[in-house]
Amino acid sequence: MANIVKRGNRWRAEVCIDRKRKAKTFDTKREAVDWSNEMEKTGVRPSKTLSDCIKDYRLIAESHKGSQSELSRLNHLDKAIGDIALDRLTPARLSKYRDDRLKEVSAVSVRREMIILSAMFEIATNEWQWIPSNPLKTVRKPSTGPARRRGISQEEIDAICANLSAMRAGKQVADMFLLAIETGMRLGEILSLEWPDVSDKSVMLKETKNGDIRHVPLSKKAREIIPRRRNIDPEKVFTLSNAQASKAFQRASVNGTHFHDARSEAVTLLSKKLDVMQLAKMIGHRDIKSLMFYYSEKPEDIADRL
Prior knowledge:
Blueprint: E1 3-7, E2 10-17, E3 20-26, H1 29-43, H2 50-61, H3 67-81, H4 91-102, H5 107-126, H6 154-164, H7 170-183, H8 187-191, E4 202-205, E5 214-217, H9 220-225, H10 242-252, H11 261-270, H12 276-283, H13 299-305
Antiparallel strand pairs: 1-2, 2-3, 4-5
Helix pairs in contact: 2-3, 3-5, 6-7, 6-10, 7-11
């Protein structure tokens, strides 16, 4: 409720917005009343916590590609700082959370959490009007260092496949791993393959990172891998979930190898057979410069070809 009082020949209006008082002086009472009404209409925001924000944003996150990781991070944020009111999540408070979190997990993980938070705060500001501005805009995100560029040696490939052979789902994960090395497909893309998408010399990816449909040509080795999956499932080429495949590969990994490193190895190997335009089309990069993030050929090997 606004408080409007006359002081001398002028009128002073005072309102309380988000637990903060604002006041202004006018020549007439009508101007003071109009200003107060406008401030209360546009300025009052419901008292919400971060948990409230996460609850509504979770519906949006579920529609994103790779939502499993995003939802997992939202669950952590909800448990860690969910009970804090949105207007108490100041840049200083969020900076402290960042610094404390860096003591627990990698800079990459903290950076991803902050990206999710920032996207959520933008919606809370512009669409829901729960907060006046995004408090993360002025908070520095942790540096993640140079991009990871790592190929996989044949010795590592053999060791990983040997480790996978002892696991229940190992043979299937080994096939996915070898297929990734031959084609450069991501794990999620491989898992999305259905039998109608498979032809003799190529596969069609309907679910890709940039949303484009991509046709991936198959090498001779790749054409030997996929038929081994016939008659196992009538619809899916591979039947594991992303979480199951990732967990199995992590257990079998040697020397800190990631499944995604197979994409880097594929780019390096394919660059010796395809020109740049063909390689970009096969890997699914609209920007040819992006190929350099994956290309990992050793300078000694390049020197041998000179």
